[in-house]
Amino acid sequence: MSPATELNGSFLSRLSFRRNQIVSMDVNHEQQLQELEYFKNHVSERFSEFISPSPPSDPILSIPWLRNLLHVFISCETEFKEVLPTTAQISKTPSLEKVLSEMLDRILKSLDICNAVVNGIESVKQSRRLAEIAVTALKQRPLCSGSVRRAKRALTSLLVSLNADVKDRNSGGGSSRRRITSRSWSFGQRSSHVGKNWSAAKQIQAMVANLVLPRGAEAMPVYIMSSVMVLVMWVLVAAVPCQTSSVPVAPLQLPKHQSWASNAVNVQERVGEEVKRKEKRGGGLMEEMQRMESVGLFLMEFTERFRFPGEEEEEVEEKVDEMDEICRRMEVELEDLQRQVRAVFQRLVRIRLEIVSVLDLNL
């Protein structure tokens, strides 16, 4: 073969290789876009089903509602794990490595929040037991002063744990109210993994500080999953008494023009309205806790005015039955919620390990 022929063959070989490389890149990019679109649609559908269920859903921030939200998170996380390998193989870019590293930090903060929420649920269980004591005492027949005193002691402790407003007997006016607070409510049940100055609200704020809409498609799945994770953690902090002094009203700035984000924003806005309306500084907006507080305040007023022998009051009996029903439902549902939060914790641990593996391969 002449030198000219050999040179020409080498050139054609390189040209063919380059063309194949370009075709491969186009195919990979197309696959990435398809998987991204599927993931976005999946997140959108899950949130759409969550906010507009058929039949009508449970009350917002109720335990079943929270469990359904965690189901949404688990479903989205499962799909994210399917998208992650393709994204990592095709787009080995510094920008992707950056958002993955930031996601690792968010996961660590989410793990701490899960621990705080599990401990917070333990506090709610204690509140339920206090309510149960009050119910048992007020169901005694005939109702005597001793039973009412037992109920009053339990209700006082219950309202302290719920950080409720009660009438101030020493104010001289029936309309004056004071807030019963318990310092141990925020700090007595904290996780062993966090310090005294740790705050769930500060963790949420740190998680959203650098969470911005990416320009390229390669980082979009990470952004979406991070947004879903922050949203769910924020809702848990709002619903369950955690180690926090306040709850941000609307921490996420999401692109509403995208369907997955508009449905997530709907959840944030609805919960944000509850945060503003209830003005609970340390979380605890769980619907069952709100009902327990309302009934507890009513029954406390009854114990204040009770004089033996007292006449049976139909409304009081109805409220006692309502508190009894709340306690019975919470006994099972709190266990289920706590178990599910622990499951989310384990999933976060596993996805963190997968992201670490991806980053190690890209180094």
Automatic annotation (TrEMBL):
Family of the protein in this entry: Belongs to the ROH1 family.
Top-level taxon of the source organism: Eukaryota
Membrane topology value: Single-pass membrane protein
GO cellular component terms, semicolon-separated: membrane
Gene label: BnaC03g65190D
Annotated keywords: Coiled coil, Membrane, Transmembrane, Transmembrane helix
Subcellular localization, as worded in the UniProt entry: Membrane
Protein name: (rape) hypothetical protein
Coarse class of the protein's main subcellular location: membrane
Record organism: Brassica napus (Rape)
InterPro entries: ROH1-like
Residues spanning the signal sequence: none
Coiled coil: 313-354
Pfam families cross-referenced by the UniProt entry: ROH1-like
